[in-house]
Amino acid sequence: MILELFEGMGQIFLEVAQALLPLLIFFGVFQVLFLKLPRVYVVNLVRGILVAFLGMVLFLQGVNVAFLPAGREIGEAVTAFGQQWLLIPLGFVLGFLATYAEPAVRVLGYQVAESSSGYIRESMIVYTLSFAVAISVSLGMARLVYGIPLLYILIPGYFLVIILLFLTDREFVGIAFDSGGVATGPMAVTFLLSLAVGVAAGIEGRNPVTDGFGLIALIALAPILSVLMLGILYRRTRGEDT
Fold first, then answer.
1. Residues 6 or more apart from 48 whose CB is under 8 A from it?
2. For 23, which of 8, 41, 151, 238 is 20 to 30 Å away at the CA?
3. How far apart are the first and last CA of the chain?
4. Separation of alpha carbons 161 and 220, rounded Å
């Protein structure tokens, strides 16, 4: 049982090394030719890269042996229960928790708060993205349960994005589009996508390939809409204060 946890870990070591090695070489070239940073800084950087390497290996191994199988099993188990409408509130809860636990969302919130000198709070960004993804995942589950075509949601959604661009505070435009990429991080892609594929496999008449995929597109769209709406709220608040 314990040996199964480490199955395929050698391949993950190679993949992570291939991903980090070019960055390390790139930094080394700039360090020798241009940066010439103190030795202490370089040593700390190397330690950080080693910690990142180990963390990525353990995380990806956990994804392969736990996250992906668990997501599929949960999706298939709920559909087998017979009460498919439960997928909608379940999707909301799992979407919120997965985004709230997403490290990249925390980093974005911290960067936004720091860059705006606290005008836009970190907690505001984190909760806005978490609720947005929760709604998008529940909508994705409803799409699977009731057979709603994906384009019926995506096309109006992006039209709404274009309209909101002219109404929101311009400071939130860049944050909104970055948040779409941040929300589709490893937590969402590994767990929520496998959940959707498992649900599609468990519902009669659904195809895991044609119906199971597409959830990440909804997850990427929802934070953009929510942050743009947050920008409108901040814009009105600023107008009232002036």
1. none
2. 8
3. 65
4. 12
Asked if pLDDT for residue 199 goes beyond 80, the answer is: yes
- Higher-confidence residue of 67 and 177: namely 177
Residue with tokens 């963390």: 55
| Residue 104 C-beta-side C-alpha neighbours within 13 Å | 15
18-27, 85-94, 153-162, 231-240: least confidently modelled range: 231-240
Q: Where are the domains of the chain?
A: 9-70, 82-241
* Residue 220, pLDDT above cutoff 70: yes
Q: Phi/psi at 194 (nearest 5 deg)?
A: -65, -35
Cα separation of 154 and 162, whole Å? 13
What is this structure's pTM?
Answer: 0.82
Q: In 82-192, which ranges are continuous DSSP H helix?
A: 87-100, 103-115, 122-146, 151-165, 171-183, 186-187
User: What single-letter amino acid sits at 26?
Assistant: F
